[in-house]
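agent: user wants the full assembly modeled, not chains individually. Plan: 1) parse entity lines 2) check alphabet per entity 3) run joint structure prediction 4) return tokens. Steps 1-2 passed, two entities, 660 residues total. Proceeding.
--- entities ---
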Amino acid sequence: MNSFLLRPSAFVPAAVAAALAVVPFAADATGQPFWLSFFARILIYAIAASALNLALGFGGLVSFGHALFLGLGSYAVALPAAHGVSDGWLHLLLVLGSCGLLALLVGAISLRTSGMSFIMITLAFAQMGYFLFVSLKAYGGDDGMAVSATSRFLGLDLGSAGPLYAVSWLVLLLLSWWMTRLRSSAFGMALRGARQNSRRVQAMGLQPQRIKLAAFVLSGMVCGVAGMLLANMNAYVSPSTLAWTVSGELIVMVVLGGMGTVYGPLLGALVFLGLEEVLKGYTEHWMIVMGPLIVLMALLGRGGLMGLLERLDQLFVGGRDAAGDGVSAGNDGAADKTAAPAEDQAGEASWQPR
Amino acid sequence: MAATLLLAQFLNGLQYGVLLFLLAAGLTLVFGIMSFVNLAHGSLYMVGAYAGALIYGSSESFALALLGAVVLSLVVGMVLELTIVSRLYRRDHLDHVLATFGLVMFFNELVRIIWGPQPLFVQVPEALSGTVTLFGLNYPAYRFAIIAVGLAVAVSAHLVIHKTRLGMLIRAGAQYPQMVSALGVNIGLLNAVLFGLGAMLAGLAGAMAGPVLSVQSGMGESVLIATLVVIVIGGIGSIKGGLYASLIVGLVDTFGRVLLPMWLRQVAERSLADAAGPALASMSVYLLMAVVLALRPQGLFPVRRS
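--- prediction returned ---
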């Protein structure tokens, strides 16, 4: 317990999660329902970013197309709802089924390539989905459509703000717990190994491509769940959820928070969307500030916010003890990242210019 | 279907294809040699389009507008290269994506602040405002000019790459950058030159596209994504692949939009055809890419790496 308090990388995420649990009561007490929907959005994007982190952070799969699964998850609620289906379990089944199948297809084709091609192919698949939903004129096309029947689970209606927030918070908590376990499971170890050096993993008798594909499919399915929550929150879906900028923003959240860490995506989503909201308060042209900040992050950033917190850990405790049990994601994220660029491309360009 | 309609669509596809080639040529070399992922290439295209539109609007000289667009996008490109891009060559692709994604946001918003969200209107230059009659088809002269410029660039690119020392370095660099560097060539400088060339071609494409497409914030993205598809289909680092893939993508996209809905109407019910036709048409290019990659992950014309 003592060491927990001495480790910012452990107690900061815990404090954030606890603070997020209090938000509904605070919003209720102050009569500011805006805060409830704002933080619900943060929770939902944290879930989506966590999903992306499974592929990007753990597996090293730079997917520039995860908006596809976010959007498909939304439409998997809106389309049946348009035909009068409001059963939440059925929605969930559709979300998981459609996103899982699509991720299997996209992953199987995309994983035949690596590096730059992988980035572009995932982007192209997301664009394909975008244009598909834009051209579905019967379902609103470009303008999107209202979700006429929000998901209902045993008397719980995700369409109302309170239950939606509670469910999102719980899903994120469960997801973080699952990611903590997955990270140190045999599957997680093999996946992280495959990211650093696919050949060595193969030499150990494992099948790195299958492992990566499994991670991509899981990632797509969880991202779909985030899309389902998003559709219920807005009671509205539109192709803009599948825009390529959304994929980019998800990547920014993951990297900002700390790739390959469990709580990084939550911190990344919180800071990114929080910053966006603050900047929007000053100017409608908030992207003119956000753009250069992202460039700076790419130029300077190593390990993201979690990396920063872990450096604080060492200040408090000193030495190596800080990153002990790996529950907080340890310093693995930061350490991997410096090693990765050279190792990942060992096949094609281990040599570095300049 | 009337042969003239087919011919018109063929020329439209060709014109879109050469525009894509102007963007793909520069991008594929920077990809191939330094493995740099540059999403901001579309922004350089936008810079060229705005520079062209504004200079043409004030000077009435389209030649001056083209020159100004090329020079300005070169300047912007070199500033980006020196301040940001060159610092990122040694990093992994994720950092490239992030940094250039931030740049795209910045440029789009900058344009929105200065010129607002509404598109600029660019007149077709007077000398090229007529039509040319080809096999009984009246086709705008300006669009012919675009095709001519694109093909001229393709021919000069071929000559530069196969007949000059720079071209030799480019070919060698695309195959084996390590060895080129080991032979004492300043490959950082080589890449800066390529980045500048790419920026100029992007600016040229933007200025040329001004009178036929709308000049507005975010105009670079759709073209950029189509260009990425071209590069992936053609094979990363290959100019020749870039040219063939540009023309294939241009033609498939154009014919897909015209022919697919028609065919669907013949085989399926009208309501279904009207719903699915446009969807399939706008996806045709991406479907093509998926098929190519499923069969040949390296693209159609991969650079032979030793």
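agent: reporting back. Residues 320-354 of chain A have pLDDT under 50 and may be disordered. Residues 16-341 of chain A form a domain with the ABC transporter involved in vitamin B12 uptake, BtuC fold (CATH 1.10.3470).
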